[in-house]
Amino acid sequence: MNATAQSSADDVKATIKSFVVRSINFSNFGDDDDLFETGLVNSLFAVQLTTFIEKKFGIEISADDLDIRNFRSLSATTDFVLRKRAELAA
Amino acid sequence: MGISRVAVLGAGNIGVGVVTDLVLHGISAVVVDVSADVLARAEGEIQKNIRYAPMLSKSLPKLTRQEAAQRMTLTTNLTEVAECDFVIENVTEDWSVKRSLYQELDRILPADICCGANTSCISITQIASVTQRAPNIVGIHLMNPVHLKPTVEVIRGFHTSDRAIDVLLSLFAQLNKESIVVEDMPGFVSNRISHLFMNEAAFVLQDQVATAEQIDAIFKKCFGHTMGPLETADLIGLDTVVRSLDVLYESYQDPKYRCCPLMRKLVHAGYLGRKVGRGFYVYPEV
Lengths: 90, 286
Hints:
The complex is a heterodimer. Chain A is mostly helical. Chain A has one domain (about 5-90): Orthogonal Bundle (Non-ribosomal Peptide Synthetase Peptidyl Carrier Protein, Chain A). Chain A has helices at about 5-25, 45-55, 75-90. In chain A, helix 1 (about 5-25) packs across helix 3. The radius of gyration of chain A is 13 Å and the shape is globular. In chain B, about 45% of the residues are buried. In chain B, strand 5, helix 5 (about 125-130) and strand 6 (about 135-140) form a beta-alpha-beta unit. Chain B is about 45% helix and about 15% strand. In chain B, strands 3-2-1-4-5-6-7-8 form an 8-stranded mixed sheet. Chain B is of the alpha/beta class. Chain B is globular, with a radius of gyration of 19 Å. Chain B has helices at about 15-25, 35-55, 65-70, 95-110, 125-130, 160-175, 190-205, 210-220, 230-235, 240-250, 260-270, and strands spanning about 5-10, 30, 70-75, 85-90, 115-120, 135-140, 150-155, 180-185. At the A-B interface, helix 1 and helix 2 of A face helix 2 and helix 8 of B.
């Protein structure tokens, strides 16, 4: 990953993390922690997170994208956004 | 033959969940509300629930917007429920509203149609007392999010017949829900106990024993609950919780159900919980 791409990835992750922290009033979690398994968030949050991603990053999430594995952790969600952005740019 | 067409009266939070569940399981819903605006909002929420349902539960199907739309009729005209196989009533927790609705239903529905009264705290026997079909009135207490909850509390009123219970249980079996049948007293099992938790949590906050986050964290991390009592109150809606506490207080004449002044104050201030973005917590705009 070049420096510009890394910076973009960091920005995406920071934006998502900020939303998660504001939503759950808790910031002590790792990038790869499974937010659902740890009980930090519930199903209601999955809907809020995907709605936020669609609006914030201008991404259209398809029925096939709506797989909880895409949103389990900060890293997974960031990877998903970057992948969808790359698809849009292609 | 199973139930194929259900009337859903009241398109608030629970009504939306009920319609979502019916549509996902191939049952047609006739959704009635007094407000066209509420119906329009409900339709959007139902479609949103249906879109996300397969992500949240592997057992729920993927439906297109068109498929979902074909399975529901939204109307402000109560007479459109006349040809339904069953009625699920979810109108506001206000006795005068429920009383006049059930009296109207008696004029519209065939005599053998059963009604499931979805209420937080009002006695099923009291509801049945204003109808001409007391054996056909059975209580339901569904919880949010309805389409993701595998179990439901079913309440047998004083005059509820075995047939009405059987019809309701067969409907819930179609929805893959287990039913727990209990007897009728205001608040039944769930809300008679849960509202004490939520109310006392508000008192603890009011007395500055702990912050809202600490109170909820103790329930989640120590008791293993999915949500804490204050988060739960915010999700239900503080206005609904206050109304239910008032019903419990009036029904039992027991001071243990007195509503926490802080919670009532938040309601008067317009902080009704998650649905308005602010209650015990502030929710970020999505």
